[in-house]
TrEMBL record, chain A:
GO cellular component, one term: cytosol
Superkingdom of the organism of origin: Bacteria
Protein encoded by which gene: trpA_2
Organism: Planotetraspora silvatica
Keyword Isomerase among record annotations: no
The keyword Coiled coil appears for this protein: no
Pathway: Amino-acid biosynthesis; L-tryptophan biosynthesis; L-tryptophan from chorismate: step 5/5
Family, similarity comment: Belongs to the TrpA family.
Subunit composition and interactions: Tetramer of two alpha and two beta chains.
Residue stretches in coiled coil: none
Designated name of the protein: Tryptophan synthase alpha chain
One Pfam family from the record: Trp_syntA
UniProtKB/TrEMBL annotation, chain B:
GO molecular function annotations of the record: tryptophan synthase activity
Name of the molecule in the record: Tryptophan synthase beta chain
Modified positions (N6-(pyridoxal phosphate)lysine) in chain numbering: K119
Domain spans labelled Tryptophan synthase beta chain-like PALP: 83-409
Keyword Disulfide bond belongs to the record: no
CC per GO annotation: cytoplasm
Gene, per the UniProt record: trpB_1
Presence of keyword Lyase: yes
Length: 271, 424
């Protein structure tokens, strides 16, 4: 990878450009179809200063999700949410100005077929894809098919990943590298895991792609601390708990603004 | 290596008499083991979070060493003989077979093992593996509670901490097995999310494993799940067919014409099928739970009615709706009530080496009661699906045929269901 930007897709180029200005990246998550007007959350996220937005396509068996995202998925499915309807909702909304990254479990991709699934994402204006149960060696075929469709397949790295494998993941990941901060499921935690710093540092050694830290980042303090190690943060359960508790787009906009501010403050510090 | 192990085993007498390195399929006797990525053709693989890959690699590497390690084989062999009660006998059932067109029916009596079902074979093997891995805690999923009871048993025997995940609905339905597990020292965690049954218990066990993987082994209960579980569980269950093949040859002087077994996740079926894979003239028949019938959608006909998907880490046949969401399965038998199936069965189906059929609740319960009344054996309702299948198969194959049936477990646990079903 002598000149990684040459091959980089739109999501990666966007995140690199923002990172290179010194900005801490913020990617909030929303479960697609969670409420009737759920796409309003996307506009609120963008307005609060999100740099990318993750849209979850709910699956019946979310083995990597903690109770909050599980409940969000069940709620959305009970409302009749499906990949098709969520993507139709996205197609029907104006561009929010930041990349959209879909996330789902592999069965939903396989069910539609790689080509059809990626083409549908593209038509809905989605630029990236996260499939947490598709580890690097199973992902090769989808990576290629997705790239042909203009979709960047993001790979995840874990604290348990040995260094040679981490190099492979970083090399094959598109868009950015998703650093899973801890050994565990998605969900809010009292503190940022100690494994987060070590993992991010190990990824840094093998790539200059943007690195976003996710799992358990729920407060401005945690975002600030995560920013000291990574290029930015993914915030899922902290958003979805509020949504499940009835918070509307404006409430989420206010919450994300506190994270935005924390990230901005952190980047003003000498690094 | 295999030959020398064979020779040494055969001359030592007391140890390693039941099972040899070659009997664990990993001895290299067959070329159809999953490839390095755990694929049986297009099936199998590892569709799990990255965080679990190092743990699966560790389990696979340790098992590779263990399966040719004479010390491990002897220890497993010793437990199978002195704790599980192996070898189990085969029993001819002529009065029952009158309903099978006069075909000769032989039952492999896994119901006579300790804890009452074939599950003990796998849990003893994996508990030994857990100790080799240096882990002190096992977790497991359970539907009806049989795998949970077997796991709690092995954990008690070997001094391992044990946590069992069980759907809250199943906990209520199988209160007796919950009590058994507790008595054996296990912690039973009722799973209240999703549909609160087996598939959700597996989801929750995966969540525990990803969190506690440094000191925990996931003692997976069937030949499904990510590689290497389909291979490991098969190899530990393979003793069923290894013994049965010898026993049928001794009793009848020839191989059976067909082997019949019930298929849920598929471990008892792979366990008895695998030793016969090379015997091309031996038909292999698997019987899935047809529930209330294929027409009304309330069934567990994964192989016969499902489509290819990914569930619980493995690419295989699954029950899914038109959106790709997993569909709840239905069966009167909790052990067959699973919307996925082991990838090796998917592969055997597509290659045509094994044939899979559905047996309804009503057909299984008829065979259940018939075996009790004609032979004095109360089978598990799971096994009753294989018995019902064998009755049909016997009528097709005719009176000259010999059919080996895996009586995978005993029916004591099913008395509540039987009381309701038959108004006893």
């Amino acid at each position: 990878m002598t000149n990684p930007t040459l091959a980089a897709g739109a999501v990666e180029r966007h995140l690199r450009a923002r990172r290179d200005t010194g900005r801490g990246l913020l990617m909030p998550y929303v479960t697609g179809g969670i409420t009737p007007g759920w796409t309003d959350y996307l506009r609120a996220f963008a307005a609060a200063g999100a740099d990318a937005i993750e849209v979850g396509l709910p699956f019946s068996d979310p083995t990597l999700d903690g109770v909050t995202i599980q409940q969000a998925g069940e709620t959305a499915l009970a409302r009749g949410a499906s990949t098709r309807r969520i993507l139709a909702d996205l197609s029907g909304m104006p561009d929010v100005g930041v990349p959209l990254v879909a996330s789902t479990y592999y069965n939903l991709v396989l069910h539609d077929g790689h080509e059809a699934f990626c083409a549908a994402l593209r038509r809905a204006g989605v630029g990236g894809l996260i499939v947490p149960d598709l580890p690097v060696h199973e992902a090769d075929e989808l990576t290629d098919v997705a790239a042909d469709a203009g979709i960047e397949l993001v790979l995840l790295a874990s604290p348990a990943t040995p260094q040679p494998r981490l190099a492979e993941i970083s090399c094959r990941s598109r868009g950015f590298v998703y650093a899973v901060s801890l050994m565990g499921t998605t969900g809010e935690r009292a503190a940022l895991a100690v494994s987060a710093a070590e993992l991010t540092e190990r990824i840094r050694r093998v790539t200059d792609q943007p690195v976003l830290l996710g799992f358990g980042i729920s407060t401005p303090d945690q975002a600030r601390e995560a920013r000291r190690h990574a290029d930015g943060v993914v915030v899922g359960a902290a958003v979805m708990r509020r949504v499940l508790d009835g918070a509307g787009p404006d409430d989420l906009r206010a919450f994300l603004a506190t994270l935005r501010q924390a990230l901005d403050q952190e980047c003003d510090r000498p690094r | 290596m295999t030959d020398s192990v064979h020779r040494e085993e055969r001359t030592t007498g007391a140890e390693g008499v039941l099972i040899t390195s070659a009997d664990l399929a990993g001895g290299g006797v067959r070329g159809d083991d999953p490839d390095i990525r755990g694929k049986f053709g297009v099936f199998g693989g590892r569709y799990v979070p990255e965080a679990l890959i190092p743990a699966l690699d560790e389990v696979a590497a340790e098992y590779e060493k263990a399966k040719t390690d004479l010390g491990f084989i002897r220890e497993f062999d010793h437990l199978l003989r002195t704790y599980a009660g192996r070898p189990t006998t085969i029993t001819e059932v002529p009065r029952f077979a009158e309903q099978a067109g006069g075909a000769r029916l032989l039952l492999k009596r896994e119901d006579l093992t300790h804890t009452g079902a074939h599950k003990i074979n796998n849990v003893l093997g994996q508990a030994l593996l857990t100790k080799r891995l240096g882990k002190t805690r096992v977790i497991a999923e359970t539907g009806a509670g049989q795998h949970g009871v077997a796991t709690a048993t092995a954990a008690a025997l070997m001094g391992l901490e044990c946590v069992i995940y069980m759907g809250a609905v199943d906990c209520e339905r199988q209160a007796l097995n919950v009590a058994r597990m507790k008595l054996l020292g296990a912690t039973v965690v009722p799973v209240t999310n999703g549909s609160q049954t087996l598939k959700d218990a597996i989801n929750e066990a995966f969540r525990d494993w990803v969190t506690n993987v440094d000191r925990t082994h996931y003692l997976f209960g069937t030949v499904a799940g990510p590689h290497p579980f389909p291979e490991i569980v098969r190899d530990f269950a393979r003793i069923i067919g290894v013994e049965a093949r010898r026993q049928v040859l001794e009793l009848t002087g020839r191989l059976p014409d067909a082997v019949a077994a019930a298929v849920g996740g598929g471990s008892n079926a792979i366990g008895i099928f695998h030793a016969f894979l090379d015997d091309e003239n031996v038909q292999l028949h698997g019987y899935e739970a047809g529930g209330r019938g294929a027409e009304n959608g309330e069934h567990a006909l994964t192989l016969t009615k499902g489509s290819i998907g990914v569930l619980h880490g493995s690419r295989t046949y699954v029950l899914q709706d038109e959106e790709g969401q997993t569909i709840e399965s239905h069966s009167i038998s909790a052990g067959l009530d699973y919307p996925g199936v082991g990838p090796e069965h998917a592969w055997l189906k597509d290659s045509g080496r094994a044939v899979y059929h559905g047996v309804t609740d009503a057909e299984a319960m008829e065979a259940f009661s018939l075996l009790a009344r004609t032979e004095g054996i109360i089978p598990a309702i799971e096994s009753s699906h294989a018995l019902a299948g064998a009755l049909k198969l016997g009528r097709e194959l005719g009176p000259e045929a010999t059919i080996l049936v895996n009586l995978s477990g005993r029916g004591d646990k099913d008395m509540g269901t039987a009381m309701k079903y038959f108004n006893l």
